[in-house]
Amino acid sequence: MNLDLFSPDAPGRLIPTIQGATAFVPSPLPPKIDLAAVFSEYGSAMAGIGMLNAKMAQLGNPKLIIRPLQRREALLSSAMEGTYTTSDELALFEIGADGATKADTKEVFNYVTALTHSVSLMRELPICHRLIREAHDKLLSGLSQQRGGHKRPGEYKHDQNWIGGVSPSQARFVPPPPAETVEAMNQLEAFINRDAPEDFPPLIEAALVHYQFETIHPFADGNGRVGRILIPLVLLSRGLIKDAVFYPSASLESKKDIYIDRMFDVSTKGDWTSWVRFFLKICQETCESSIEVVDKVLSLQLEYRERAMKEFRSNNVVILIDHLFSSPVVSTPIVMGLLNVTHRAARMTIGNLERIGVLEKMEGFNKPEYFVARPILRAGS
Ligand SMILES: Nc1ncnc2c1ncn2[C@@H]1O[C@H](COP(=O)(O)OP(=O)(O)OP(=O)(O)O)[C@@H](O)[C@H]1O
Ligand SMILES: [Mg+2]
User: Fold this and answer.
1) 49-67: pLDDT as tens digits
2) CATH of region 3-293
3) What are the extents of the domains in the chain?
4) What are the pLDDT digits (tens) for 277-287?
5) I need a labelling partner for 314 at 20 to 30 A (CA). Which of 136, 161, 274, 295 fits?
6) Ligand 1 pocket: which residues have CB below 6 Å?
């Protein structure tokens, strides 16, 4: 870590750690934030949140959109970490299709599980150590040794970690050593669950929490991803959004270098204003792109239902269409179970949806055959 970059305004302590390197331990939140300096970006981001909430109210059934958005978040947040799969492979993995066993796909699937698990835990718990560790556990559980399976899912780090570079002394940034981690996380938990949460607008609070979490880097692996999961959780916990429909990775991924530089500049110079401004801009873009996805999903649903009713007058076709929005790959046995019909009837319903271009047969699968609702999968990506 280049210590020359740290100014007296750096919001934390520099302390010695392993191999003669120096680590940065952030001061507890909150810092002094110049709200007037971020006023314009704050207004635009809040307008975006207002529009997203209005769009959700129009949608009626949030379930239609939550899964496509979560899949997209899992793909993009994992891509930022260097883990890649396709939406086809992820959808196949979700239904346990044979052959869908790639390690990357499992890891992205874990991301969706970590998201849904932590969102549902929020019904019983505040954002706290347990919730954060459970999200981490879901994210890294069941992975092979090379994929982080050995990196203690659900446990804070036991060894000094670092970001960028081959060793702590050459790293761009060295977060706190393990001995400081629990105390730093206690302070973060105390800030999130403070007595007067209204002293910071939720979007700015999410910016502070994300920075602080990333700077503590409490886990051996998965810090980027767990920290990005925290963002919608903060907004949900404050009631800024009602459903889990806010996922920033598409926008963060497109500005990855700036994202990292802005956080680094907080640690080295105490430049909170640039970080918060950047974060608010990300929030605005996130709302805009979520609204686009909602629009695409809504119009597909409308179009498919209308066509199905006109051509087939069958309630089963409509049930299958709705199912495809949460699970866009099906097989004949899946449809038999869903509709409680014979093999022949299930295959016929699938055939009907193939005919009107909703489903297409996936290459390379024969026993069983799989069919994908590609426009629905694409709407989320
Ligand atoms: N200078 C920095 N200060 C704070 N956080 C940073 C900094 N640089 C990067 N980050 C955060 O750390 C993440 C990458 O760091 P690292 O590769 O150590 O993560 P990780 O623990 O492997 O997490 P994941 O596996 O989810 O990417 C980035 O996505 C970003 O959120
Ligand atoms: Mg990693």
Assistant:
1) 999 999 999 887 888 889 8
2) 1.10.3290.10
3) 3-293, 312-379
4) 999 999 999 99
5) 295
6) 80-81, 163, 173, 214-215, 221-225, 227, 260, 263-264, 267
